[in-house]
């Protein structure tokens, strides 16, 4: 009998989550967490993967032969066919062309595969989350950046070189703000947590009154090099407290998010748009306003039929999708 468990690893911007997942039910059986660091060299990056994977297996009381495989979702550019991590500037600047799947196979003795983290989260949503039973949908995740993935006929669309679905780099403002990718006016430069943080810190410097000063006493000393200064939970608290500046800033980000989604709806005519990620989960206002603009600004026919919903798996989408990849889904 084939093993019903697989190991899924979600290697995100600031942390690494490994989980043993029952791939028949999507149930997360055991997890282990590690921090990640942009200063990591390739061997340190692999060391963190091994440690987290082994800790999750130990917590599940399983040995490597008892799992069907290992899948990794990673925030970086990936050659999925060859199992190679091409580069991941946010996780490890020193790592290029790392044969991650091969190294994992050698270490654990089971099949291993890797993919872009957002496509992996969409795979989780497709099988056990808000995309279950839906053949054509679009996933949009708002966090440090804005990620997206397209499911077409029940499969993740990869495109000619693996980058299909990058909704964060749709142009929403011609010649606008500089994006992290070097382009201008891209959605991510307006709607990500990094963008929201940057905008808020700018207004604070100009002396705007805000309850954020009470929620984050050392705010004035903070800068946002990685854009991680203001967490989603703090944004949610400030909006709930009726803070004018935060509410205004979130609304503006949501408007751009909605415009980007409207463009994607016009292009793809999906049955459903699944919205997830830390900021969406924490801040209802972002979801509500984005969904309204997405409907308002898309063509009448696709706007009438599209359902805009929240992601179903929360933080677990990545590890569940990764485990499914490891199991050969
Ligand atoms: Zn961009």
UniProtKB/TrEMBL annotation:
Classification via InterPro entries: ATPase_NBD (IPR043129), ROK (IPR000600), ROK_cs (IPR049874)
Gene3D superfamilies in UniProt: 3.30.420.40
Family stated for the protein in its record: Belongs to the ROK (NagC/XylR) family.
Name assigned to this protein: ROK-family transcriptional regulator
UniProt organism field: uncultured Thermomicrobiales bacterium
Native organism taxonomy: Bacteria, Pseudomonadati, Thermomicrobiota, Thermomicrobia, Thermomicrobiales
